[in-house]
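Exercise 7.
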Amino acid sequence: MHILKSPAAGLAVLMLAAGCGGDTASDASPARSALRMGLAGSAALAEASSFGLSADANFYTIDTGAGLVFKIRRLDNGVSTQSAGDIASMVYNGVQYQDQSRGSQVNSGFDFLYTGVSAVSVNAEAIGADYIKVTVVAGNLTHYYIVKKGVNNIFMGTYFTSEPSTLGLARFILRVPIAALPNGPVPSDLRGTTTTVESGDVFGLPNGQTRSKHYSNLRLKDWQYIGATSASAGMWVVRDNNEGNSGGPFYRSLLNQATATNQELTYIVNYGEAQTETLRTNILNSYTLVFNDGSAPGAVDTAFFSGLGLTGYVGPAGRGRVAGVGLTGRDAGYEYTVGFANATAQYWAKADPATGHFDSAGMLPGTYTMKVYKNEYAVDTRSVTVTAGGTVALNTIAIAGDPSAAAPLWRIGDWDGTPAEFINGDKVTTMHPSDVRMASWSPGDYQVGTSNAATGFPAYQWKNVNGTLTIKFNLTQSQIADYQLRLGITAAFAGGRPKPQVNGWIPANPSPSTQPSTRTLTVGTYRGNNTMYTFSVPASELQVGQNVLTLTAISGSSGVTYLSPGYAWDAVDMIKQ
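Solution. The predicted structure, written as tokens, is:
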């Protein structure tokens, strides 16, 4: 047992360390007696000083001094849902915000992160007069809980040198009694569902609407916090720059879930579903749990992390930036994002809508692939190298990779990396394709010049649902020429890809694109790897008057309805060779 003195109050505060095996001293030993006396004294001191750290045999208790008191479990409770290192209690203004039967934890508990590793160590310490840090170590993962005096936040950080192997992911799940925090996103509210629609994680209401934890998603670049509220309080997770995640600025994944028992908030550090990149390690991923009156949380200042001895922490002096003067050749109808990625970290910056100027600060040193995105479609790619304390200044970038720049014979949709402009494109991220609110996925023949994308062409196509789509277009004699047919998709499932036929002309089967191996189209995301298939259509196969293009979903794999091979459409067009 170690005693720390609080410089401000002159009070003794315990710093204790515990593993899953507990204290080895017997109940009658002098060490055990001293421990009990110390714990009792510590509890009394913490109560007297309000802000502080106390401990008993099972928990560390931290009081922010401003209304939030929470407990970290010191010992394994014998079940995976109550592991050492879990948050076991969160009382804010007298209300309990922690499910008492389960912990809030990384994955399914710190003792179940790595195969064959169950030992967990938990250490707590006061740092100066204003901070308390709890350190949890489990295998190759270190997790921190940090409190700043007088602030009702639990600052957290997660660092690991190898991906947790039992689940192949890293996420922190907060489990709050639903009565304490009833209001969250509707698409992920499972209360009232009566049927399972898909895979044990998509459910149906009696009226035919669907709900799932997956449907609380947002593009990563579009949210700074997630949370839920009651009539008098709010609980929020505010993210940092998310540099240790994988998937880029447009990545979508589960955030919230409400059940009859709990309101769950999930902060994704690394998640295997719909991943387009290798998962990143060796990064301190920081995020903050904020308690307040229910209003939207503001920015969180974590500059004080520099003095806390956190593994993986890199301060501003060890980082650099990339700044660009502007972008030319932009389409004024779209937002542009500049993304940076390498095996270590990821970043992004919004381009100014008037000039295209962008500025990405706080980047770790290294060489990055830099992509300029028109909405979600990469229209420029290059490499930049960032140094600590340095700024990479880029001259104006002329966009040259936008497929929309080529004048089409005709075009369905927009080359923007999304299916948003097609049938159901506004619904696919918040409901299952079978939801009664979806329009028919088989709209009938598309007539170029008469039909429109929003009502005549589906956002998704599956082998076992709408396996063949027909597009009809008319040509005059002067329009007969060699053309390039371009078929763009944003994601694919089970090797699905489109095979065209123009009149009697049939090309060889295209190869599958490189895509995530998990579900995408049914779990609220169209975000995979943008792929353009190109086919040379000879003039000899075209005719004056009506021509017929069929697009057939093919794959060597099979499946049933919405889990059959399929893909999300980006655009379809024909341009002159």
